[in-house]
Specification:
Elements: H1 2-19, H2 22-164
Helix pairs in contact: 1-2
Region (Disordered): 69-144
Biased composition (Basic and acidic residues): 69-102, 109-144
């Protein structure tokens, strides 16, 4: 109803504006401007009246989001701490494993050196065995030759003895 009254008022003012003289026109324009400002002021009051509630709602929503963000930050900080502890444990485990690998590599190298020494000793022993076998064969051959020679002499001596008897 107020709006309808306002429209009628504006229509009346527009009618009066056209009918008025130049002097009255300026007064009428001043009245119209004041009325428009009053009407704008009422609209502004309505908007401003609702604005604190909207601002409070917005503030509450932002506060809620901030709380959620802080909670998430705390969770992420705890996860980061846990991850860092796990990383440190894995780093320590890796260091221990590397030390063990170096020890095993050292033992393997030592065992390879010992194996090579045994291999060299075995080769030397095999060479000595071969030399002993060769010496044994030669001694056996010499012994057989000596034995054959002795048997032949013995046979010759027996034959000579029989001839003499």
């Amino acid at each position: 109803m107020l709006e309808r009254g306002s429209e009628d008022f504006f229509d009346d003012i527009n009618y009066i504006l056209t009918a008025c003289s130049e002097r009255g026109l300026s007064k009428l324009l001043a009245v119209r401007t004041i009325y428009q400002q009053a009407k704008d002021s009422q609209f502004t009051k309505t908007v401003l009246k609702d604005q604190p509630k909207a601002l409070e709602d917005n503030r509450q929503e932002l506060y809620h989001k901030l709380t959620e963000a802080e909670d998430e930050k705390q969770q992420l900080t705890e996860r980061l701490k846990t991850t860092e502890e796990e990383r440190q444990q894995l780093k320590d485990t890796l260091k221990t494993t590397e030390e063990e690998r170096q020890q095993l590599t050292g033992r393997l190298k030592t065992m390879d050196e010992e194996r090579q020494q045994f291999k060299d000793a075995l080769k030397t022993t095999e060479e000595e065995r071969q030399q002993f076998e060769d010496a044994l064969r030669e001694t056996d051959r010499d012994f057989r030759n000596t034995l054959n020679t002795a048997e032949n002499k013995l046979k010759t001596l027996k034959d000579e003895k029989e001839e003499l008897l």
